[in-house]
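Agenda item 2: iron/sulfur cluster complex prediction
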Amino acid sequence: MDWSLLLDKSILIFIIFLISLGIAAYATYGERKVAAFLQDRIGPDRAGPFGLLQPIADGVKMFTKEEIIPSASDKILFILGPCLFMMTALMTSAVIPWGKSFNFGGHEFHLQVADLNVGMLYIFAVVSIGGYGIMIGGWASNNKFALLGALRASSQMISYELAMGMSIVAMLLFTNTLSLREIVDGQAGDGNLWNVVRQPLGFIIFLICAFAECNRAPFDLPESESELIGGYHTEFSSMKLGLFLFAEYINMFISSAIIVSLYFGGYHFPWIDGLDLSQNLAAVISVVIFFAKILFFIFFFMWVRWTLPRFRYDQLMNLGWKVLIPLSILNVLATGAWMTFVK
Amino acid sequence: MQLTNRSKVVVKHQLNWVEKLYLPAIATGLSITIKHLFKKSATVKYPEQTREIASVYRGQHVLKRDEKGRENCTACGLCAVACPAEAITMEAAERKKGEEHLYKEEKYAAKYEINMLRCIYCGLCEDACPKDAIYLSDRIVPTAFTRGNFIYGKDMLVESVDASGKVDISKRKKIYDMDAQPKQPLLK
Ligand code: SF4
Ligand code: SF4
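Presented output:
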């Protein structure tokens, strides 16, 4: 075992953990502010300057709330649900390349926890386990609203993961790799465009499915405050509820990172790559670019949420099975034909 | 009979295939919301910042005293009768000897309460009062934590005797002077 490698990765994992939590915390604040601005309001501004301490106030609130476990619930599963959901949300970040590698006196420091050659598959696997978090949580609550929410979440996940997987297949046809770092690097350099240009249809399908996977509006049917009073987390209180809500924001952050990596060149940016910079400076800039792109997509998630109304359940299923899946198959066929006959 | 030409005949037309994609419509929606991001917000930071209100604003009531500092109200109950929200209750008492400097008439309100949660700030109590005793002022009723705290007694309603505690209601008085032309527009 290489100790320096272990140390490198531990440091990186710790930093990514903190960043994920920090971004998720401030995404809750950002969401309220974005919502407020889009609705011509001011938004939270009481806790600290511009309300910047609001996430901390919320955290304290969540921690000090009474912990209620319904007597008719399955205790073990009830606790396992939010834990599983949070854990999988955090685990997905492992294969994301956060930037170019640093070099400290000849020691390479890679900004990726694990460069799996099946990175995308790993993400799909972990995200599907996250679905169990919702299902278990909803089931164990022994509450019909929670159960309905959990049912919706699982059927939504199955329907949209298919189309999502198909859009990845189309991309796989010409990238020839599932490793996220190779996909990202394949979008830089001479003559290599961002994948969003090469796979516009695939991108739209992936984006829509990402919204559905994150349970974000307009696909927030598992929660739907107005009809299911919170859906799968109806019975949860205190920090268990906090974990669910928090994990959703982490999911949003991670899926923004994945969208950026897959379709928007990850940490690359056209002209900046051409500059002749020292390795460490280039690494810093690449990280900044990556996070700027991620923040844009997080904003996009919120922007869509405060623009579109929620789908009806049958519309959701229609869109998934009758539109997105045929389209994604078409996309695979078209890409395949193009790779065979044109290239 | 058609009064205006603003009415529009609504035709339900079949969506063409571009519209069926929904994406253009979603893009339009997104562009509308993003425009609001740059608009001035319609709300204000309330306690620090207040909205401009009309000079004849109908806010928290005041029970007036006359120029000698005596309470005008004679507990006739007309305001309570006029009140559509039934927000006013009172108990009358007779003025004793030696209290002439406190109460203008020989009967006065020993207890006078307005429930600020029931009140709809219509100002009818003001209209009903024959003694020039009750007025609505441009003060906003502050929030409280319990319902009981919204029932204002005489301690909250009657203006104080010294000049500094007087509540200015001259602007509200002016609008009842029907013959006089308004010297200033009602809105500031
Ligand atoms: S303002 Fe109207 S509702 Fe309020 S106390 Fe006077 S009469 Fe009643
Ligand atoms: S405020 Fe006016 S109307 Fe009401 S009891 Fe007193 S004198 Fe009568």
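Discussion summary: Residues 14 and 20 of chain B are 9 Å apart (CA to CA).
Owner for follow-up: CH.
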